[in-house]
Amino acid sequence: MNINSNSYTYVFAIAMVIVVASLLSIAATSLKPFQEKNIELEKKSDILSSIGVIGEDPELLFDEYITEQLVIQNGLVVSSEVTAFDIDLEEAVKESNSTRKVPLFKAQKNGDTFYVIPMRGTGLWGPIWGYVSLKGDGNTILGASFDHEKETPGLGAEISTPIFEDQFPDKILFSSLRDGIEVRKGDASGYQQVDGISGGTITSVGVQTMFEDCLIPYKNFLLNLSIENDNPSDSTISVLYH
Fold it and tell me: Which end of the chain is more exposed for a tag (fewer CB within 10 A), N or C?
């Protein structure tokens, strides 16, 4: 075949496309188990970090601290073909409140019981998500960690930094005033407000909306924990169950 002909160029280009596509397909298939494992370890690390556990082996630590994985629907623990860890929250939040099944992780640390709630919402440019850990009363926040897919660096992306996350410990989720956490423009006060990110208003509001939406399936379960503990976080919210 004449290597200077158009037909040779076309055949060579097609052959190269096939070879490169095959190599990429083989690489993707070979690397997929490693990618899935990395995603699993990152998820376990995020869950643990919300209760203040950080270490080099999240898999081992997860088994040590997470004592139970529950699937919640309409405030009740239900059976599920999918484990709590394997629930796809991106798909779950698309369902109605009555049919949505969501994961809840029960943890033990230094003799105390905590509950970790995964959350998912929408920021300015894409998905945002987080893990919020609660003390044994089911209402007081122990810690929170957030992340995003493509929020603006220095603005909305700041939700994943300590300057934002460190406001959440000791806040409460439920009161007679509201469910969730209100994100304010620099004048936060009280037990259910935090300051948003300056210049990242839409992402900050996305966090507030994420709380309001994602807490719905858990509410009755968590309020029952508060009643069982008979320990409202503050006297000013003692009417939250009525």
Answer: C
